Amino acid sequence: MKRDIWGVFHDGVLKYIDGSVPGTLILEVEIEYLRGMFDEPGISFRIELTGYTKVVYSEYDEKPTQDITKIQEREPEILYVTSEQPLLLDCVMGTLELEYDAMRVMLPSEVEVSYESLVSASDTYWSELSVRSKGDAQPFNREDK
């Protein structure tokens, strides 16, 4: 999956991290508005990074850490992709750098979600939000589609 896909996780919170270097890193990104665009109930995506060799979280005014337990405790909130090579994510309280070979995004049932599905869901959500914000700001209800 292309690394720019991390941009669809805008406002997503990294709630769970597990793995070891080198190897596979499992992440859970909680992002209710984007998950709501998919039929399966839930508020998060499971992300599997294979060939993982590096994760560094640099919280502002703190020493960078590669300790996944400490990173998980801080629950970084993703804002946008700063760089794709190396992958650098700007977060609310710092930056997250990841190095890996391949990425899979799944629903909690382990059904894989394609790059195109994620981009389409994100585009649809933000387009509908834009339309609602120009009107009389009705709460989003997926059943209205």
Keywords:
145 residues, alpha+beta, five-stranded antiparallel sheet, 9 strands, 38% strand, globular, disordered C terminus
Quaternary structure of the protein: single chain
**What about the largest sheet?**
5 strands, antiparallel
- The global form is globular
Number of distinct beta strands: 9
**Number of helices, counting only DSSP H or I runs of 4 residues or more:** 3
Q: Ranges with pLDDT <50 over ≥5 residues?
A: 140-145
Strand order of the largest sheet: 1-2-3-8-9
User: How would you spell out the order of helices and strands?
Assistant: EEHEEHEEEEEH
Mean model confidence by pLDDT: 91
User: What is the alpha-carbon Rg in Å?
Assistant: 16 Å
How many domain units? 1
Judged by helices, strands and strand pairing, the structural class is alpha+beta
Q: Measure the end-to-end span.
A: 28 Å
**Percentage of β-strand residues:** 35-45%
Percent of residues in helices: 10-25%
Task: Produce a short descriptive summary.
The protein is of the alpha+beta class and 145 residues long. Helices cover 21% and strands 38% of the residues. The protein has one domain.
